[in-house]
Write a structure and sequence with these properties.
Strand order of the largest sheet: 3-2-1-4-5-6-7
CATH topology of the largest domain: Rossmann fold
Number of domains: 3
Structural class: alpha/beta
CATH class of the largest domain: Alpha Beta
Number of helices: 14
Number of strands: 16
Strand content: 15-25%
Radius of gyration: 22 Å
Length: 344
C-alpha cells in the first residue's frame, strides 16, 4: 500500500529517514516523506514525488490539506508527531470504518506506533506492526478483538475477500467473540439447521447475524502509460454499472506486469481494496479461450490482448466472460465471472 508520512520537527525528519532506510534494506517500498519544517524551500517544490537529497519533500500547506491529499489518493497517512495533531487533521476525512484510509501516529522519538483509523478494514494495525518492527518501537494496538485475541469478523472478511452485506452484524458478532462465546460459521453449500452467527453465501433464506458474500468478478485492464486515474475510475464504474456490477463485487484486477505499477491501477486497488494480479506476456499468451486480438497491442506489449486474457487468468479455470473487451480513451477493460464452486 502507498504510504505517506509527514513530520513537524528535525527529530521527526530523522525518523522518517531512518524508516525509509530500514524499508529499503528489507526490499519494501519506502514511505513518501513530507517535511513541514522547511517552509522556505516548500514554495519551490510542491510537486508530489519531487524529493530533496534526504528523500523528503518540503511541504507548504496545512496539515488538514495534507491529510486530504492522502485521502484523495487512498494512501496510508502517517503522522510523525503528537496524536492531537493527527486527530485534528483527519477529523474532516474520517467517515466510515470500512472505507477510511489507514491513519497512523509515530512519536518523533520512534518509541510508539499508534494506528488511529481503519485498523482492521484498511490494515492500519498490520501496517503499524510492520513499522514498529522496523523501528524497534512499541505498537499500540487498541482494537478490542486484537487485545483479547478474539475472532475479528471484519479481518476475516478482508483476508478472504468477502463483502460484508449487513454491517450492523459486525458489532454483534464481535461482542460475542469478546465474551468468549463460540462464533458459528456456515457456508452456502452446507446450510445450518439453526441460526448461525456468520454465513458465507450470495443469498440465503437461513437465519444469521452477519452475511458475507464472495466477490465473483475479475476486472481485466489494459491502458496507455500515464492514464489519468480519475478518468479510468469513471470509465470502469460506468461499464460495470451498465452490467449491474458494483466495485464491491470485484475479486481482483488483472493486468500485464508492464502496467501493474500504473497509478490509475494502483489507485483503484487502494481505494476499493482490490488486489492486483499481473502476468507476463508468456503467461498471457497461454491463456485459453477466444480473445479479441489487436495487432497494435501485440506490437506494443508482446501479446495480442491484455484485458481479456488477464481477467481470464485471474478468474481461474472455467471462468465466464461477462463483459468483452471494451475500449475507452486510452484504456480497455473486460470482466470475467469466476466459477461458483471456486469461491463459495
Amino acid at each position: 500500500m502507498r504510504k505517506m508520512a509527514i513530520c513537524f520537527s528535525r527529530a521527526g525528519r530523522e525518523l522518517i529517514q531512518r524508516l525509509r532506510r530500514a524499508e529499503k534494506e528489507k526490499g519494501l517500498d519506502p514511505v513518501e516523506g513530507y517535511d513541514s519544517t522547511r517552509q522556505d524551500d516548500a514554495a519551490e517544490t510542491k510537486t508530489i514525488g519531487e524529493r530533496t537529497g534526504d528523500g523528503l519533500l518540503p511541504y507548504q500547506g496545512t496539515v488538514e490539506e495534507w491529510a486530504q491529499m492522502a485521502a484523495e489518493i487512498h494512501a496510508c497517512a502517517i503522522f510523525v508527531g503528537a496524536t492531537g495533531i493527527a486527530v485534528r487533521a483527519v477529523a474532516g476525512i474520517a467517515a466510515d470504518k470500512l472505507t477510511d484510509i489507514p491513519v497512523i501516529v509515530i512519536d518523533d522519538q520512534g518509541e510508539f506506533v499508534i494506528p488511529l483509523l481503519s485498523g482492521h478494514a484498511g490494515g492500519a494495525n498490520r501496517i503499524a506492526m510492520t513499522l514498529a518492527a522496523l523501528l524497534d518501537a512499541v505498537p499500540v494496538i487498541t482494537t478490542a478483538t486484537d487485545l483479547h485475541g478474539a475472532f475479528s469478523v471484519d479481518v476475516f472478511a478482508g483476508e478472504h475477500r468477502l463483502t460484508i452485506r449487513n454491517r450492523d452484524g459486525i458489532k454483534r458478532v464481535s461482542a460475542k467473540a469478546l465474551e468468549g462465546k463460540p462464533v458459528t460459521l456456515s457456508i452456502k453449500h452446507f446450510p445450518p439447521e439453526s441460526p448461525v452467527d456468520v454465513i458465507v453465501a450470495d443469498e440465503t433464506d437461513r437465519e444469521y447475524t452477519l452475511l458475507l458474500s464472495p466477490k465473483p468478478y475479475v476486472l481485466g485492464l489494459g491502458m496507455r502509460k500515464g492514464k489519468d486515474p480519475g478518468e479510468t475510475e469513471a470509465f470502469v464504474k460506468q461499464c460495470l454499472e451498465q452490467h449491474g456490477i458494483s466495485m464491491e463485487e470485484l475479486y481482483a484486477i488483472g493486468t500485464i506486469d508492464l502496467k501493474e505499477r500504473e497509478e490509475a491501477i494502483r489507485r483503484l486497488s487502494r481505494k476499493y481494496r482490490i488486489p492486483v494480479l499481473s502476468f507476463d506476456t508468456a503467461l498471457l499468451d497461454q491463456a485459453e479461450g477466444e480473445f479479441t486480438a489487436s495487432s497494435f497491442v501485440k506490437e506494443t506489449v508482446g501479446v495480442d490482448n491484455v484485458c481479456e486474457r488477464a481477467a481470464s487468468l485471474a478468474a481461474g479455470p472455467q471462468a465466464v466472460r461477462v463483459i468483452g473487451k471494451t475500449k475507452g480513451d486510452g484504456v480497455t477493460l473486460a470482466v470475467y465471472r469466476r466459477k461458483e464452486g471456486l469461491y463459495v
